[in-house]
Amino acid sequence: MEKVRIGIIGMGRMGLTHFSIINTHPAIEITTLADSSSLMLDMMKKYLPNVKMYTDFNELLNSGMVDAVIVSTPSSLHYPVCKLACEKGVSVFCEKPFTTDPSMASKLADMFEEKGLVNQVGYVYRFDPVVNTIKNLLDEEVIGKICHVNAKFLSATISKMQPEKGWRSKRENGGGATYEMGSHVFDLMEYLFGKPERVIGSILNKVYSETVEDICEAGLQYKNEVTANIYINWSDYTYRKPMLSLDIHGTKGKILADLYGYKLFLREENKVKGLPSGWTSVPMNMISDPTPFYVRGTSFTNQLYDFADAVNESRKTRGCSFRAASYTQEIIHTIFNNDANK
Q1: Biggest alpha carbon distance in the chain?
Q2: Where are the alpha helices (DSSP H) in the chain?
Q3: Which domains does the chain have, with CATH numbers?
Q4: 110-156, pLDDT tens digit by residue?
Q5: What is the pLDDT of residues 184-213, one digit of tens each?
Q6: What is the pTM (predicted TM-score) of this model?
């Protein structure tokens, strides 16, 4: 069987991470790389003499040397890169946020669906073992009808005054707490509870940044009258590592979860699932999550391997599609427009 030929566009931190992972897949051959930095490409040439290097993504996509690409450029380039890839019949894994414009996101979803090309956005928490265990509990209605969710994502990404420079200071490049961290939460909520029906309200605050928000608070409503409070803060200096947590209330119980495990409270014993009443704690290391290669956790590998397998097998991915990512972009855009501080 011929290997799937993959190119990587954008060789920054995420590009290098994706390279290290996808290079281990037995059905993949990395044929091309593109980056605007000739210094980066010169360094890569020393170790990859058989891989074609480009400083222009147009040349890579016009080379005829790729079946699929991984796009890890600034968000402002996602639309033109993905659009050209689609026109060339190339499947795409695109880093998040997908775009910073809802209409562009929707157009790309339409284009890739029409051509039947594999498309995936890097909302990696869809592949987290704790998240998928929780999803199974919710799908099986273990805690009954869902009433309300509190979701938080906290970090010390920006913990001092920031000048107006760098990609994090520009929304068009995916900067600001809402795009950088909040997009993960909004996608995760969509994964667990479906597309939200409306944004109840939102407020954005600056702490250290001059041009983008450091804190985002939003209220959302999902189907079946499920409500959610979302709180994003990338200026909480008490967190050494980013911390994502969920507090899910149901009529029969409650789930408290983060990326290190979860706690389940049941008002009554669930004999079918063998779960007692009261609290049950399950740490992450008790959840099976096999992966062939470990970089920054198992989720990144499982995400990219699923994309590669989908391209190889001509099927849809299990990850976030361009269509699902366009819904997240719509929600973020609505939150920006509804900001009570505007």
Answers
A1: 63
A2: 13-22, 38-47, 57-61, 78-87, 102-115, 129-139, 177, 183-193, 298-313, 322-337
A3: 4-125+297-326 (3.40.50.720), 126-292+328-337 (3.30.360.10)
A4: 999 999 999 999 999 999 999 999 999 999 999 999 999 999 999 99
A5: 999 999 999 999 999 999 999 999 998 999
A6: 0.95
